[in-house]
Amino acid sequence: MATKLKIGSSPDVVEYHPVDLFNRAAKYEEAGFDYLWEGDHTLPWHHTAGHCSSATVMLEAYLATTKRIKAGFMVLSPIGIRNNPVDVALVSATMATLHPGRFALCVGTGEAMNERTTIGFWPSTRERLERLEEAIRLIEMCLTSKDYFKFKGKYFKPFFYMYDKPSEPIPLYCAANGPQAAKIAGKYADGFVSINPPQYYKDVMIPAVTQAAQEAGRDPRQIERAAWISTFYDPDMEKALQSARRYGGLLIPECYHTVDDPRIIEARASLVRDDVLAKVFGIVTSGDELISRVEEYIKVGVDHPILAEGSPDPDGAMPVYKKVIKYLRDTYKDVPVR
After folding, report:
1. What is the CATH number of domain 8-331?
2. 120-150 pLDDT, tens digit each
3. Cα–Cα distance for residue pair 291/288, rounded to 1 Å
4. Catalytic residues
């Protein structure tokens, strides 16, 4: 049973300019974060002051400019719409080879704004789940096969062999916001991540992962439990709230599946009330408030909280993050978090 608390951050290519992200990577390491996670987006969640750069390029930049911190995709969708699982395996193996023990991969079913907008194709939820499960098996085969192989799946039928494999296994995480994806995580993944609130995480997500793991003959206690915690910190509440307002689309289900234009998502996000944003998002003005927010997740079994960066001044937030991380490490040093 894992007891060590891991603390991650997501610098967020859809929120900040790539040069700023590049220059800030080492600061996250200095603050004490264990992981930097980056999402594979082609379009942002908001149009005004929006950004979007290549997660693959940024992850390599993060790893090349730091020494200790681990980095990975969260989330990369290998379902064969934009990203073929063989290409995902190749990119992952290359990064893991260049940076042994420091790369991780988190996969998921994707979002319409990234998939349909680039290809014009968006399968049903059922098909995307099927594609995800098949892709996970194919990626694993690419990373472990000792010879050429033919994969005969429903959606993928490659003939392949990966010549340069990493010296250490690549941790595989699975994004799961509902029970069906959670079952895939329990069956295959080393960890799972969800954006759900603490109570739903406890009542629905963890039981679904646990049941699937047990049915697959795996020990669910060995599956890491990560939580994506939207974080908007600023000493000025209005500034923090202003940043959070841009992400109201995260709370609208259709913005994941049917709406893919950031301009429309932004317009609909403006309709979300401030009190709803404050209830769901981590809109905080002090380190103590952020600690309380993170502890809500730790208390329901999360052992890898991820602060999804949305702060108006991330550089100014670093001293606060450093104190928060020290407190969490000291407090949960010898306490099982599950």
Report:
1. 3.20.20.30
2. 989 999 999 999 999 999 999 999 999 999 9
3. 5
4. 41, 111
